[in-house]
Amino acid sequence: MPHLHADVAAVTDRVIDRSRQRRRAYLDLIAHEREHGDHRPRLGCANLAHGYAGTDEQRDAMRSGTAMNIGIVTAYNDMLSAHATYYRYPEQMKIWALEAGATAQVAGGVPAMCDGITQGYDGMELSLFSRDTIALSTAVALSHAMFEGAALLGICDKIVPGLLMGALRFGHLPMVMIPGGPMHTGIANKEKARVRELYAEGLATREELLDSEIAAYHGKGTCTFYGTANSNQMMMEAMGLHLPAAAFVNPGTKLRQELTRAAVHRLTEIGWAGNDYRPIGHVVDERAVVNAAVALLATGGSTNHLIHLPAIARAAGILIDWEDFDRLSKVVPLLARVYPNGAADVNGFEEAGGPPFVIRELLRGGYLHGDVLTVMGDGLDAYARKPFMDGDRLAWADLPDAPGDDSIVRKVDAPFSPEGGFRILEGNLGRACIKVSAVERDRWVIEAPARVFTDQAAVQAAFKAGELDRDVVVVVRYQGPRANGMPELHKLTPPLGVLQNRGFRVALVTDGRMSGASGKVPCAIHLSPEALGGGPIARLRDGDVIRLDAEAGVLSALVDPEEWGAREAAEAPPPPAGTGRELFALMRTGCSTAEEGGSAMLAHAGL
């Protein structure tokens, strides 16, 4: 195996050194839970009877105490295409567990909301904190001490991070993440974007836009663009938490079913009492977290994971920050172009080689830790192979040396770019991040007057009124986690794209989030400190010239320093209310910064 790249090794050492005290405390905690915590043999008879009462065919096996009992934590609902696929999984998994001499029960469900539905509406302000809610729900599900392992059923934006944040507090248990796969390809992403921009200009009707969107999002499975949900799947592969190459196999296929069956069987093999015990708290170590970051950067993945991966890591006693991402991005090559960073969707990515090809090439280049613990075995080599059906038997094969389509996936010695698509920006406005993998190089530096807003709707109104038809830096503030839950601002993508298409120099600066589908317009996002509480973005005024320089890593208001220091913050909007937002006030008040993971739960827990 090639030597680990020196810069990847240096970042890993930095993470290990920074995390040493917290990681030691975490490992001590899960060791104590294994040896002295609650689990089935220690429960009283009445407690056990309650736990067995809901099942018939498995009761005898459970009562014997010799069979592993798997807790299924599911994000199933049939409003979300990605999670509708999980409908029959639990009943199938119970059969597959019995095949392996184990039992399984649905331990609990977690909420799964869809940013695609709530984009631009009040419900989006619950989105980030749904992740904490999912983590808490996962903890409740696993708190009954009835399980020797767990299967985590979730795919999308906040669901995978939330499941892991909760599950890692039960790090003494072996666990497997079980995906459901992407929907089949609908209309071309380029056509979808074209109709959106036409509608933004008033050149397409609502009916035409709806027809286009339904043609894109048309069936069960994850959305097919490479946003946060599918970036989740890439990271789970690189962390060794899936069965190898399970990420992008379509739902409803024999291969998809057999991968899930094999995941259940594998979970019984790495269980509590076996000879191959692999608790999730040991699988998710510092090297696995760095591997996830590398895989994200090498594929141009979602900026949302600059919040989610630090939060996942903290749940395991590991501290990773944006500087680590920035250092990695400067050396990790860009090996994939998947929409919105290219023309292909994730089905095209999978056909061209997908996660196994990327992982193999990153291993060849020394960019991944290959010697990690995974649910499949020791080392990442298994994740560089492709599953297939050999008759009725699931098997894995080596990949061809060349990608299926080098406009989608490249070898490590011929990348799309010698570096990843992420930068830190710093200056008198604070610290932000920017995804540049889909931004043309001549747009990496934007200097223009600001137009300041406090919500998306006002930006859209100004766009429709022609007020933004010029070089402009659109500023949207009071969008941070403490202000309103840090909603994504994805509805700004079409109008900003239109302005850029018209030849204007355009950028976005915000303390909010931008979707994992953000693309060609330069966006300085996650700006910290946020406006609420006195972050410098609150001092900006219309007409202030802002310089966004992704080459030099600068984000500054070009205002006289004396005047800048004397300015007061603009008045904050009232606290959110309606659509249940008032119920999340505690989470907003106690939330950590975006760089620390944007989590009230972790902040209150001292993690």
TrEMBL record:
Cofactor(s) it depends on: [4Fe-4S] cluster
Single annotated GO MF: metal ion binding
Cellular-component GO terms for this entry: cytosol
Binding, [4Fe-4S] cluster: C156, C223
Keywords from the UniProt entry: 4Fe-4S, Carbohydrate metabolism, Gluconate utilization, Iron, Iron-sulfur, Lyase, Metal-binding
SUPFAM superfamilies assigned to the protein according to its UniProt record, in alphabetical order: IlvD/EDD N-terminal domain-like, LeuD/IlvD-like
Enzyme Commission code: 4.2.1.12
Name under which the protein is recorded: Phosphogluconate dehydratase
Source species of the chain: Sphingomonas guangdongensis
Gene that this sequence comes from: edd
